[in-house]
Amino acid sequence: MKLIFCLFVILFSIKGFSQQSPLVINQVSGYITDDKQTSLPNTTLRLYNNVNDVLLASTTSDDKGYFEFKLKALNNCYILITYTGFKTFKISWEKIRYATDGKLGTIRLSADENLLKQVVIKARQAIVQQQTDRTVIVVNDQVKKLAENALDVIRLAPGITLSDNEDALQMSGKEKVEVMINNRVLKLSSRDLLKLLKSMPVNSVSQLEVINNPSARYEVSGNKGMLNIKTRQNTEKGITGNIDLSHSQARHNMGDMASNLNYGSGKFAISTYLAYHYGNYPTQTLTNRYLGSAVLQQSIESVDQWRDPAIRITAEYYLNSQQVLGGIFSHEESHNIASATTSSVLEQTSLSDSSYQTNAYGPNTSRWNTYNLNYRFADAKGTEINIDLDRSLYNKNDENNIVNNTSGINTLSGNRYETLTAITINTFKGDYSHQWKNKLKAEAGFKISGVSTDNYLAISDLTNNHTQAGGSQTNSFLYTEYVNAAYFNLSRNYGKWGLQIGLRAEHSKTQGITTGVTDHPLLKPDSAYLSLLPAVYLTYLPSASHAFRLSFNERIKRPNYSALQPFNYQLDAFTYQTGNPALRVQKNSNVELSYTYDDRITFTAAYTHTTDLFNPIIYTRGNSIYHTTINSGTMDGWNFNLNYPVKITKWWNMLNKLNGFYNHFNGQLYQGILNAGKWSYALSTSQRITLAHQYSLLINARYNSPFQNLIDYQQSNANVSASIGRKILKEQGSFRVGISDIFSMQKTNTLVNFGDLNYTQNKTWESRRLSLSFTWRFGNKKVKETQDRPTGSRDEKMRGGS
């Protein structure tokens, strides 16, 4: 009997052992490459059930071509792999079930030689992808038909628009937008930033990441968004470069010259960006102010002239395949002259009218020097370490000469205001991240920064050329700020769900010392505070056609250094500007829900609550008007965005954007309590039409409805622009001619009626302009380019006015 029982146990064990096969699988992974073993990032992979072809999950490969599926159990399924320009590849269940530990190894895709027959497949390829904390635009063949450079790719992003003068990027519902390249923030002036993006050919860009609510890792200030451009990494030796020239003409002219040169030699890579900007830009402003029983009419004719050179050098040395040493030097210089003639007429009921003419002449020079040393370690196991050491120096000499002429009497009366500003910023920061094979990722980091701003104001009497007698002769303001920050992020994907949680802690200590003519120091502002800033993201992908993301974060915003200066300036006979050293830190709480349909159409709804809102305001003292910045209370903002691309024909593509928003303000102002809000909307469309013989036509149009900004009610305005271009020099160059604001609808009309403030203001400028541009790209197109680093002082520099 015992023998029979033993035989039974042995047979059962053998049967059980024989059934322990690769059928029990919960994870599948591998690498995607082309025939030349080059990694293919952003490849689309979909997992289907063999029985009824139901989609179980979908994913994309990372920068190294790596992909991974992880479910509770995989059984009787197959994988379809698609990538534009390559044949669709199918991995059968037989191959999956017998893969060791679910590792499929390297999968090579074959190029599709008959691309013209794959129009339907191309049209279905993912353009927009939702990830845990960002939206990704994949730069595939469709995008390359719509974009010539990195800036054109950004134009396609949901909620992103370019200002009418093409000198600033704007993100709907956000105060500002930062731009990164390969996770490294670019700290350039707005004009230099856009020129650099124009110099990056679209073939060098692999994807664009739109980060509406940045995670705890990013040191953003206030309600700010971010863009991250990921480039295609090449390893060939040689030289490549870009030359970009542009010029626009109305009654006055302005233009840009920029060059980006890259050199790679094995382990060493260096990039140099050179630029020079020039311009003369006039504006006309008409203002009618009602000051009790008097009416002040002002007409201002102003011209801004600038000559701005810039240089940026980035170098990297590859110690080995895992470690990189780098350095950055940048020098930005600005030579500006602002001149204005203000004609003022004060009409009073009981007195005769008084007329004044104010001539203002303000030359200023500013310089930014930034030095950065960095180290990066990254291995194949998912570990990455970044260390940055920065020092930034800023100097500005700002002069403003005000000469008043009263009632036609030819007398010279006025003052010279000379302001000297010196800012020193030192930062040390480090970041660590590790991603495990189960898709769990942890990030942690720190930042230590110290800022010192030294400001000096001297007031001289222009008639006698000596320091003004009576009142303040000189004034100095020394401001110091120390910030220690640390953060932690944890994220993981669970099948169709994704979750990320993070926390950033910032401890700040500030002190300001003001010394006036009486030599009595005023200690303002002095404070020390700890800010805990959480960030949470939840994503859900129910199918290949639908993607949802819900996010929440909190941020603080510190005031710009210039806004803290307790200095008074005269702008004209009736207008003054003053600083506010008692400004408190602004806090933003942001919630956003985004939805993507069919990998291309996106809809976003966002809510922002702001306390201690920074806002420029105006108040009056008698007949004088003062401009300053205050904490104006709270703002609740709702923002809705729709991004809808349409392919009308093979040669005609359209991108439509709709933005609706509501801002409600509530707070105590100088004139009383404000409790008001207004719904507004903005429409824009971009048409790209491909013509014969390498020509292309671009038409851009937008309309902004009336909207409210605190007490300012701004009327509607619009703009229609068009340009035609042609590729030349064997498609390595292009030439374009365009005209902006064809119907002269770009203007600003403002109405204010709150408390004792009652005025209208109409502002126009040379918005209708003829433009010419030329671009030429030369050299070896496979050169390894340096990866722009995020200098640790970028946030502090922005507050310095750069």
Automatic annotation (TrEMBL):
<protein>
    <submittedName>
        <fullName>TonB-dependent receptor</fullName>
    </submittedName>
</protein>
<feature type="domain" description="Outer membrane protein beta-barrel">
    <location>
        <begin position="379"/>
        <end position="776"/>
    </location>
</feature>
<keyword id="KW-0675">Receptor</keyword>
<dbReference type="InterPro" id="IPR008969">
    <property type="entry name" value="CarboxyPept-like_regulatory"/>
</dbReference>
<feature type="signal peptide">
    <location>
        <begin position="1"/>
        <end position="18"/>
    </location>
</feature>
<dbReference type="InterPro" id="IPR041700">
    <property type="entry name" value="OMP_b-brl_3"/>
</dbReference>
<keyword id="KW-0732">Signal</keyword>
<dbReference type="Pfam" id="PF14905">
    <property type="entry name" value="OMP_b-brl_3"/>
</dbReference>
<feature type="region of interest" description="Disordered">
    <location>
        <begin position="783"/>
        <end position="802"/>
    </location>
</feature>
